[in-house]
Amino acid sequence: MTEPTDSAALTRLTAAELAARIHAGEISAERVTQAHLNRISEVDGAVHAFLHVDTEGALDAARAVDAELAAGKQPRSALAGVPLALKDVFTTNGVPTTCGSRILDGWIPPYDATVTRKLREAGVVILGKANMDEFAMGSSTENSAFGPTRNPWDHDRIPGGSGGGSAASLAAFEAPLAVGTDTGGSIRQPAAVTGTVGVKPTYGGVSRYGLVAFSSSLDQGGPCARTVLDAALLHEVIGGHDPLDSTSIDAAVPPVVAAARQGADGDLRGVRVGVVTEFAGEGYQPGVLSSFHAAVETLRGLGAEVVEVSCPNFEHALPAYYLINPSEASSNLARFDAMRYGLRVGENGASAEEVMSATREAGFGAEVKRRIMLGTFALSSGYYDAYYGQAQKVRTLVSRDFAAAFERVDVLVSPTTPTTAFPIGERVDDPMAMYRADLCTVPVNLAGNAAISVPSGLSDEDGLPVGLQVMAPAMADERMYRVGAAFEAARDAAQGGSLVLGCPSVPGTVEPQGSGA
Amino acid sequence: MTTMAETMDYDEVVARFDPVLGLEVHVELSTATKMFCGCATTFGAEPNTQVCPTCLGLPGSLPVVNGAAVESAIRIGLALNCDISPWCRFARKNYFYPDMPKNFQTSQYDEPIAFEGWMDVELADGDTVRVGIERAHMEEDTGKSLHVGGADGRIHGASHSLLDYNRAGVPLIEIVTKPIEGVGDRAPEVARAYVTALRDLLRALQVSDVRMDQGSLRCDANVSLRPVGTTEFGTRTETKNVNSLRSVERAVRYEMTRQAAVLAGGGEIVQETRHFDEGSQTTSAGRRKETAEDYRYFPEPDLVPIAPSADWVARLRETLPEKPAELRKRIQQEWQLSDAELRDLLNAGAVEVIAATVQAGATPDEARSWWVSYLAQQANTRGVELAELPIGPAQVAKVIALVNAGELTNKLAREVIDGVLAGEGEPAEVVAARGLAVVSDDSALTAAVDEALAAQPDVADKIRAGKVQAAGAIVGAVMKATKGQADAKRVRELILERCS
């Protein structure tokens, strides 16, 4: 196969492939960046993965990488020169950061998040800011104040959420890498429904400094990519201890790249895999379950020892999650009051209280207001013990279920989400239905351990992507990378290539080609 | 028409009612940086120059605990005979106010770092009252609102407000007493004595500037009354804006007389925050608390728990200074003071500063003479306590050392002290800048002596004839010529040398 040279073909390459070509001097980072900027201008009018494209900043960053390489310097990192979409929840010095909310419309942060800083220092080219549900509250990106993102597989369907922009930018080949945040599934569920890879690292594995807080004890930044190896490479760039985040783990980043490379050998002998029995049955789409069962058989075929594991408290995880996240959010979002930055609504001469009230009324969307009210109620004196206090107890029980399970197995597996991408608009008036999209993903957030979603196939009913979730103990993220990479290699070999390369065309794109794999 | 008296005569108040006090003291720690970020804490800086994303509460910012502040908190707790929690957390206190950047204050709620302590407070007549300490907890200060256009800088009637976030995030320790009961008519005195004793203790710990005038020590006074002979607490009020020790006493006394008048008139006390007015020495109603504000406390998820090890606490216990009460006992013995002399020094607030000056190298007599005379006058003129003067014991000791070394006369020493008080720097800097060093250059002095002798030949002859006492006139002339910057003793020696 000939080397991809045209702009469109460049966007089909993985991050690892792009980095290899850039670092070998075969193509410039600027050309790679320009190719992705071209792709964005072609398709993003339809997809709407980006809220802000930083064309000049991206090209400047790419040229800086090229200049260093031309001067004979070593690449700054394994991903130097590779473009990336950054979820609009991370602060970017000098570049707008909205969190998908009107209330931050026009705010230009004066500082970089630690993740942003690490990306810049690694020479990763930040293309722009990815769309998201307002303040990361949602499972469809329909709650963005700036309009929904569409699923590149079917424009009438949701790309998942809250990080729908990050995931869609990968599936639409607008970026080979993205960074998301996962509070209850916001990286993994979009990855599952777009046929991409999404990782929620161990809580504390990636700094939260500069990540605009939704639910502090649950929020975790993580890598999004089209392959497990790319996710691992990005994980090592953005992970690690940060003295500016007290909850950051003071330990080395787990050896995730080595684990991903090891896993690609396809040998899982000696690895014990637990199937969570609670994640099946009512509410699960048959095509999702059949894809999951096939995935489990694939793992067995790779030599893994597969057992069923019951985690009885997982069924309480979702209600507990929907008490903890609104409680923390009600406090975290109190600062948006028009006094210092962002939107300000109110007549001249209005009191500070009136301005605060009018601004919050106008600036927050319905879902954000719902969570603020839920959380305010749950924390109120007289209700605290019954709601927030009980939820914390459930959290402990969920952690114990994980601890007991990981006594028996190395990783746990489940479908990432009970259904494939649902139609835009279907659940906007039914918050409970929307919340159920997080059913399989929230236990990991409550317990603080790690999980990855890897494409497992297409659902029989609708031909849409399904995700396999692999869960690992806290600070053992490498285990899920190994299992995820092994599964990915086996699936791709059986299906003749990466699932996402089969993503149907979007306006202005060329037909996807098979990769050289 | 009859009007109800606004206050009741104090003697009648205490005959009919039994006061119960609760004092909440906020202390700003004098750490170099803020509670949760690296910003400086210097008092009086240009507004909004000591700020960063964290203390401005910018989206995405996170707190990191200042270890020095935790250390101060533990030392304060130990000095107040408290238990130190082996594991405690910060909590968020949620309420909206423009000078609070996050619209929640990071504080401690049901897990204070120090709890269950006490402090013995000595009253003017030597009686001691033991005040129970409920808790001491860590929190961050808010910014400052400056309300423009209204009366007295209060928000009522203001056209707009200016916000200064320099103070936002400065470390605070809140120290809360248990109810102080059974002190009867001495309640106002006890309140003042408690705050005074606490201030002295905090100063000895060197954890805070404890300047009530600058707000680094703030006292909220809770007062309630109950009929004599009953045990149930009455409804309390909380008086804020009590900015001096004297005001603590007056605010409590005024509240007692006001509440008594209300109760005697058949009225009910409204649970509210009241504002002490320095001018009128009265309190007025502020924010009503009848619907208790719900702060929706919950554990701060952005911070990890504080778990001081027993070793660390033991090491900090060893750093505790001598307690003020013990210091006084020791000093009375060492300086051989009568009870009355000690009480005079205590009332002048001079014991600690004198002791610290002695510790810095001066003799007790030297230290006493400076603090109770010249420095006392300066404090009096400025209307502040000795310890609040902008000169410290170490600086006074330095001045005394310069006098002893013959480099300053007493007169020059006063000028050096004036310079330090005026903010001109350390004593040595003032000496250099004002050119106050004693003229100890013998050749210059000799020239001045010769000149004086030549100007008064008759006096010179008398000295030469052995009338040594006549030298006084020449000494005076030389001192005048050198503008007092000569060491009179050396001048006298030179005169006698020249006339021998």
Automatic annotation (TrEMBL), chain A:
Domain Amidase span(s) in chain numbering: 32-479
Gene3D superfamilies associated with the record: Amidase signature (AS) domain (3.90.1300.10)
Reactions catalysed, as given in the entry: L-glutamyl-tRNA(Gln) + L-glutamine + ATP + H2O = L-glutaminyl-tRNA(Gln) + L-glutamate + ADP + phosphate + H(+)
GO terms for cellular component: glutamyl-tRNA(Gln) amidotransferase complex
Classification via Pfam families: Amidase
One GO BP annotation of this record: translation
Catalytic activity, EC: 6.3.5.7
Function field: Allows the formation of correctly charged Gln-tRNA(Gln) through the transamidation of misacylated Glu-tRNA(Gln) in organisms which lack glutaminyl-tRNA synthetase. The reaction takes place in the presence of glutamine and ATP through an activated gamma-phospho-Glu-tRNA(Gln).
Protein name: Glutamyl-tRNA(Gln) amidotransferase subunit A
Species: Tamaricihabitans halophyticus
Automatic annotation (TrEMBL), chain B:
GO BP: glutaminyl-tRNAGln biosynthesis via transamidation; translation
A single GO molecular function term of this UniProt record: ATP binding
Keyword Transferase: yes
Name of a matching Pfam family: GatB_N
Keyword Nucleotide-binding in annotation: yes
InterPro entries reported for this sequence: Asn/Gln-tRNA_amidoTrfase_suB/E (IPR017959), Asn/Gln-tRNA_Trfase_suB/E_cat (IPR006075), Asn/Gln_amidotransferase (IPR018027), Asn/Gln_tRNA_amidoTrase-B-like (IPR003789), GatB (IPR004413), GatB_Yqey_C_2 (IPR023168), Gln-tRNA_amidoTrfase_suB_CS (IPR017958), Gln_synth/guanido_kin_cat_dom (IPR014746)
Keyword set, alphabetical order: ATP-binding, Ligase, Nucleotide-binding, Protein biosynthesis, Transferase
EC number: 6.3.5.-
SMART domains linked to this entry: GatB_Yqey (SM00845)
Location of the Asn/Gln amidotransferase domain: 352-499
Catalytic activity: L-aspartyl-tRNA(Asn) + L-glutamine + ATP + H2O = L-asparaginyl-tRNA(Asn) + L-glutamate + ADP + phosphate + 2 H(+); L-glutamyl-tRNA(Gln) + L-glutamine + ATP + H2O = L-glutaminyl-tRNA(Gln) + L-glutamate + ADP + phosphate + H(+)
Record PROSITE patterns: GATB
Role of this protein: Allows the formation of correctly charged Asn-tRNA(Asn) or Gln-tRNA(Gln) through the transamidation of misacylated Asp-tRNA(Asn) or Glu-tRNA(Gln) in organisms which lack either or both of asparaginyl-tRNA or glutaminyl-tRNA synthetases. The reaction takes place in the presence of glutamine and ATP through an activated phospho-Asp-tRNA(Asn) or phospho-Glu-tRNA(Gln).
Family the entry assigns: Belongs to the GatB/GatE family. GatB subfamily.
Quaternary context: Heterotrimer of A, B and C subunits.
Protein name stated in the entry: Aspartyl/glutamyl-tRNA(Asn/Gln) amidotransferase subunit B
Source lineage: Bacteria, Bacillati, Actinomycetota, Actinomycetes, Pseudonocardiales
